[in-house]
Amino acid sequence: RRYRYFYSGLLGLIAIFVIFVATWLALFLAKQIIVPIEALVQATGQLSSGHLDYRVHTPAIDELAALVHSFNHMTQQLESKTHELQESNQGLAQANAELDDRRSLIEAILESITPGVVSVSAEGEIRKVNSSLRQIFPAETVEKTKHVADLFSEEDRAELAYMMNRAQRIGLAGREFTVKREGQILHLAVTVSALER
């Protein structure tokens, strides 16, 4: 009976020890899994708040360590891409501002020169005119006209088309035209210059 009590007690102590070790081991392994996952969840929240420089420094093992490493690598790439995008947006905004400045300068120059200037497409459609052209031709005619050939008589349209084709080949063509307007006869020196697209 004494041996039975002894071995029963010994088996009970061993059982308690095994349960204690198993519980401790389970908690330890759970902590190894839960802590990195909590850190990743917190990092995801920081990332969604806009903190792209946030990194996970929690130690992890096995697949979780690979996951933490992948997350940190992803946030680093995302941060660098965001910086590149911001720099390119700043460069794009600067380029647009420079284009607007040049466009304003060209328009100011066009408006200040005495000769009438008409900017047309390769097909002859009017894109832009300056104010001096409205002094040569009636302003309402200029506003309504969509094609540059419509500003000239039928006799001169063929010659104007020839000049435009010649300018596209060699860059420049010129000729004098006589235009009748409101009882007046205007002698115009017309120069066609082809610009690169």
What would you say this structure looks like, in words?
With 197 residues, the protein is an alpha+beta fold. Helix content is 63%, strand content 14%. It has 5 helices and 4 strands. The radius of gyration is 41 Å and the shape is rod-shaped.
Task: Offer a few descriptive terms.
197 residues; two-stranded antiparallel sheet; alpha+beta; 5 helices; rod-shaped
CA radius of gyration: 41 Å
Proportion of residues in helical segments: 55-70%
Class derived from helix and strand content:
alpha+beta
N-to-C series of helices and strands: HHEEHHHEE
Cα distance, first to last residue? 110 Å
Number of helices: 5
Give the amount of beta strand, in percent.
5-15%
Shape: rod-shaped
Task: List low-pLDDT spans.
Answer: none
How many strands in all?
A: 4
For the sheet with most strands, the description reads: 2 strands, antiparallel
The overall pLDDT, averaged over residues, is 82
* Strand order across the largest sheet: 1-2
Topology of this structure?
Blueprint: H1 2-48, H2 62-112, E1 118-120, E2 126-129, H3 133-136, H4 139-144, H5 154-170, E3 172-181, E4 184-193
Antiparallel strand pairs: 1-2, 3-4
Helix pairs in contact: 1-2
Brief overview, please?
The chain has helices spanning 2-48, 62-112, 133-136, 139-144, 154-170; strands at residues 118-120, 126-129, 172-181, 184-193. It has 197 residues and is α+β, with helices and mostly antiparallel strands.
